[in-house]
Structures are given as C-alpha cells and as structure tokens.
# Entry
Amino acid sequence: MNHKITLNPKGITIIELLVALVIFAVVIAGTYRLFISQSRAYTVQDRVVETQQSIRSAMEVLLRDLRMTGFDNDSPDSKIDITTPLNVGTDQIIVDYEFDNTTRYSVRYWRDAGFQTLRRKLTTHKDDGSSVEGPEETLLENVEDLQFTYGVDKDNSKVLDRYWIEANKINPDNVIAVRVRLTARPQQLAAEDRKMMSPRTLESAVTLRNLCMR
# Structure
C-alpha cells in the first residue's frame, strides 16, 4: 500500500514574520514602559516617606531645645543666670538655658536660604566668661520654608492671650509658647517628578514651661 505525503509549499511569509516582530516589539515596549513607570513611582514614594521622616526628626530636635528655653535649676551652687532666654525671629530663633551649674547653652536655629537647609548651632558659655562656638549642623535639606510664630501672655495670667503673633509684633518677655512650621521638598530625580513630589509640611507648637513659671 502506497501512502502519499502532501507538503504545504507556502510556509511563513516575510510579511507575516514582520507583523509578528512588530507585535512582539510593541508588547515588549509597553511592558518596559510600565516597569519604568512603576519603578519611578516607587522611588518617588520612597523619597516622600524619607522626607516626612526627616522633617519629623528635625522637628523633634528643635522642639527638644525649645522645651528647655529659660531653664534654670535655681541651685545655690549654680553660677549661671539666664538673662535672655529667648531671641525671637520669623525664620530663626535662639534659645538659652542652663546645662549645669557652670555652663549655659545658647542654641540657634535658622533656615539657610542659599543652601535651603535647616541649620543648628550650639554655643557653650562658661561662668568664667569664656565661650565655645560649635559647628553648624545641617538638620534638614531642601527646606522651602521655616516660620516661627509666638503665643504671648501680656497680663502675666499664665494663659495665652491670642494665637499666633509674628516676631516683629511682640515683646519677647511676654512669650510663653512657640509654633513652628517647617516645609521641605523631597529630592527630585528628574524635572518631570516635581508634580509628583509636592512639599511636605509639619507644624507643631510647644509651651515654654520654664518661662511660664518665671
């Protein structure tokens, strides 16, 4: 018995092969763009979270010093007198407090507009009149805004008269509370990421307990 085998003479044409390659290329390109988009979104979100954590950390350091404003342990052995516990400003502030019986700390916070950073500087004053200036520390980068406003007690009632007053409108001797507003932007990876990486703002207020008890 003879079996006749019939072959398909057509096979795959060049046009069919090109169409298949084009479809494959489109799928690969779409997948790649999706991967890049997801990677960028993840990186942007990671930068945003990092900035939020950095703002909180910087704010905590600042508030820690603010809470110490005017501290004087009133010990008979102390040789420190806090005459100017607070120097107020709109985008900077200086607080003084007693560290020990022979040492006074003066801490300045300000925004360096040129480098857009939040800076801190500690100056140590000794009872013999000598002083040592510490280095300028950078607590936070990409700072767009730093604002201090103040709560006052004009009649010495230990109650805030009103919220919140700008530095140029107050008597520093009446200040018993400070509100801090700190704004920073996540570090950009590219110009097109600016819309996705809007500034983050943290606002906090602290009562200056040592001044309330004066």
About this structure: The two ends are 120 Å apart (CA to CA).
